[in-house]
């Protein structure tokens, strides 16, 4: 079994105490363009989501984990989505909540841990990420961890009156 803890962070399952974190992130319009959300979520809806967060990835085709410091401070979320065990692939997304926690290697270590888990425990052959072309931090992070640009989705995301390209990155485990 792969450990979900590194030298700086650990990944853990969602808990009911994460309601405030989810509420803040899901209702932050600045992340809506990457999440595909266009409306806020109520606390009641998010409570229902948390009540069902224990469901198996093979059932719901998604796994959302909380990124925590080793001192148990929740600092973000990392997801596997579109989980496809037949074809051994899944999408991956990551969000570090506060600017102060970015560019410190926390996202990198979180993504490394998730990649090892996906490959060794879930038997995935590949992961992919959809990244907006102007998101330099994410582009750098995923490239650093061996994800390769395999395509461009032109004019894919409409936001603030204009279209943005979304880049498709893929990592194949061999």
TrEMBL record:
CDD domains: NAT_SF. Transmembrane segments: none annotated. It comes from the Bacteria. Residues 9-170 form the N-acetyltransferase domain. Pfam families: Acetyltransf_3. Gene3D superfamilies: 3.40.630.30. Signal peptide: none annotated. PROSITE patterns: GNAT. This is GNAT family N-acetyltransferase. It comes from Maribacter litopenaei.
């Amino acid at each position: 079994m792969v450990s979900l803890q590194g030298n700086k962070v650990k990944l853990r399952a969602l808990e009911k105490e994460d309601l405030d974190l989810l509420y803040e992130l899901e209702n932050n319009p600045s992340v809506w363009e990457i999440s595909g959300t266009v409306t806020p979520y109520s606390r009641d809806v998010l409570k229902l989501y948390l009540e069902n967060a224990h469901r198996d990835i093979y059932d719901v085709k998604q796994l959302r984990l909380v990124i925590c410091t080793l001192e148990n401070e929740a600092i973000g979320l990392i997801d596997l989505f579109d989980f496809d065990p037949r074809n051994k692939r899944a999408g991956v997304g990551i969000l570090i909540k506060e600017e102060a926690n970015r560019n410190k290697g926390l996202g990198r270590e979180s993504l490394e841990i998730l990649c090892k888990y996906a490959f060794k425990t879930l038997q995935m052959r590949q992961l992919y990420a959809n990244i907006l072309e102007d998101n330099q931090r994410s582009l750098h992070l995923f490239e650093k961890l061996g994800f390769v640009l395999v395509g461009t989705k032109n004019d894919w995301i409409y936001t603030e009156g204009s279209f943005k390209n979304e880049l498709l990155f893929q990592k194949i485990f061999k």
